[in-house]
Every structure is written in structure tokens, then in C-alpha cells.
Specification:
Blueprint (H helix, E strand, L loop, with lengths): L2 E6 L1 H9 L4 E4 L4 H4 L7 E6 L4 E8 L4 E2 L16 E10 L6 E2 H4 L22 E4 L1 H16 L3
Parallel strand pairs: 1-3
Antiparallel strand pairs: 1-8, 2-6, 3-4, 4-6, 4-7, 5-6
């Protein structure tokens, strides 16, 4: 099982939610990473612009290529063709989203960068992270869901 941070817009996160969170797509530049995805992998959604974690989903299929317009991109012609079927584990509402600035310093993955440059850890569309970071983020999301902050 692998754990992934999906870096994308809140708009694409909402598109997935409106579809019932049944599928998620990745940029055409992510063929190598998505080819390693397998059923059971976990996806954590990092929402760019607002720098928040919005939810977790489980991959339920192998990757497939589909160019049907579904997700939106700032880049003309980018259709997020590498897709996996998913099922939602935790979907936070906007007021429950987790502030990445509060979590990133506690993550093992971000230790590769100097503390003042932790944002570099979230450049690009897809990053594999260690299980301990997944567990940390999942616990924080469960706490946000119960309102026990």
C-alpha cells in the first residue's frame, strides 16, 4: 500500500465531490507516478491556493487513461488523463479543512527541506509519503470531523 498527497485545486476536489468521489484524475506529466498506484492506496488531497488538506480517498482500481473533459486546469488542453477509481474515506467541509502550515512541520516527508521552505514539499501534482505522515494527517482529519479541537 502506498500513500499519496495529491496537490490540486479546491475546484477539482469539489468536482470529484459532486460526482460522488468515484474517480480522480492526474496531469499528463504524472504517468510514471500513477503507474505505481494500486487498489488500496490512499490519496490525501492538498488544496492549492488555500494550503489546506481537504480529505482522503482510497484507490479502488488500477490507473487508466481517459481524455473525457472532467477536471479543470489553468493549462490549455490539460485534461488530467491518468485516472483511478476511488471511494471517499474522509471528506471535510471547508470549515473543517486542515491548515497545512500546522501539520507540515510535524511530517517526516517535509524534513527533506529546510523548515522555512516546507512549501517546496508540495510543488507538483503527486507525492508519495511515508505511512507515519498518512496516519498523522488521518488522525487530524478524524479530530476535525468530531470537532474535538
Amino acid at each position: 500500500m502506498a500513500y499519496w498527497i495529491v496537490v490540486g485545486s479546491e475546484e477539482n476536489f469539489r468536482i470529484a465531490q459532486e460526482r460522488g468521489f468515484d474517480i480522480f484524475g492526474f496531469k499528463s506529466t504524472r504517468r510514471r507516478e500513477t503507474s505505481r498506484m494500486a487498489p488500496g492506496d490512499k490519496l490525501i488531497f492538498y488544496l492549492t491556493g488555500i494550503m489546506k488538506f481537504g480529505g482522503i480517498a482510497t484507490v479502488t482500481s488500477t490507473v487508466f487513461e481517459d481524455h473525457t473533459p472532467l477536471f479543470r486546469s489553468k493549462k490549455a488542453g490539460e485534461d488530467y488523463p491518468f485516472r483511478v477509481r476511488v471511494q471517499p474515506d474522509i471528506l471535510l467541509s471547508p470549515e473543517q479543512y486542515l491548515d497545512v502550515k500546522e501539520i507540515a512541520p510535524r511530517m517526516a516527508y517535509t524534513k527533506k527541506w529546510p523548515p522555512e521552505h516546507w512549501r517546496l514539499a508540495f510543488q507538483g501534482n503527486l507525492h508519495e509519503i511515508p505511512e507515519e505522515d498518512y496516519q498523522l494527517i488521518r488522525r487530524e482529519m478524524e479530530t476535525a470531523l468530531t470537532g474535538a479541537r
